[in-house]
Amino acid sequence: MEFAGKSVLVTGGSSGIGRAVGSMLAERGADVTIAGLDQAEVDAAVADLTLVARGTVAGFAVDVRSEPEVRALVDRAARPGGGLDVVVASAGVQRYGAAADTTTEEWDEVLDVNLRGCFLTARFAVPHLRARGGGSVVVVSSVQAFVSQRAVAAYVASKAGLLGFVRSLAVDEAANGIRVNAVCPGSVDTTMLRDAARLFAGDAASAAELIGRWGAAHPLGRVARAEEVAEVVAFLAGDRASFVTGAAIPVDGGLLASAGVVLPE
Fold first, then answer.
1. Choosing from 3, 124, 155, 165, which is the catalytic residue?
2. Residue 58's beta-bridge partner residues?
């Protein structure tokens, strides 16, 4: 019951890492509000979270690119008398293409969802966190804020931008008792990863093999489970991380620690 009495908002909370975070914090006592783009997916996530929740659970279909929709979402999450204690910004999309192959529309979509969406969430949430005397913001970035695959120009730009935003927000809000941190996952077994594998592999069997190869590139030899990332998010969100702010924590199975050039056996 680490989060008992805490009010938590998770964007991107209907799938992947965000859903795992919402479930974990709900099980640990938080009143959780999740947001996702698809109403049916949000409803399914709320039903699952309710099974384990020790507090209340609510969910809304929201486009994080929309200022009015994000403002309304934050106001719903910060219920009268309940305030807002924790914000997890997990909404994100991936589109593939080198700079010369990325359309302006694709660039704008990725930057608007991944970066603008985080900014809008923070913009409207921070006053509620200040009113509570402080709180925690955790942003889901990526190892690709530091290194890049081929053909992910927009995604890498957005994830690197998130780390700059995290540092700025952490410095600006420290005096208000608000801590701001990021997690930077490697490959995680989510719908986004499986969609990418199918895109490049062509069929389900080859996609599973490709995910296995991606996992083997991590020194721990596999891709992560969403719950493993959620554990680090929960640590940063809670009081155990009371002196941690402005940090970017890799949750990557050693990927960033490993050189790409391997010596022969």
1. 155
2. 33
Query: What proportion of the chain, given as a percentage, has pLDDT over 90?
Result: 85
Q: Which residues make Cβ contacts (< 8 Å) with residue 177, sequence separation at least 6?
A: 130, 133, 134, 135
CB atoms within 10 A of CB 204: 11
SS3 content of the chain, % helix, strand, coil (to 5): 50, 15, 30
pLDDT band at 162 (very low <50, low <70, confident <90, very high): very high
Spell out a b/e string for 92-103, using b for 16 or more CB atoms within 10 Å of the CB, else e: bbbbbbeeeebe
CB-side neighbour CA atoms (13 Å) of 164: 8
Distance CA 249, CA 117 (A): 21
- Strands in 57-61's sheet, in edge-to-edge order, are 57-61, 31-36, 7-11, 86-89, 135-140, 178-185, 248-251
Residue 223 DSSP label = P
252 in Cβ contact with 143 (< 8 Å): yes
Residue 183: closest CA among 2, 59, 16, 1: 16
Domains in the chain, ordered, with CATH? 7-184+225-246 (3.40.50.720), 189-223 (no CATH)
CA 246 to chain CA centroid, nearest Å: 16
96 included as an active-site residue: no
Tens-place pLDDT, residues 174-233: 999 999 999 999 999 988 888 888 888 877 668 888 889 989 999 999 999 999 999 999
What type of residue is 129?
Answer: L
Q: How many helices (H) and strands (E) does the chain have?
A: 9, 7
The model scores a pTM over 0.90: yes
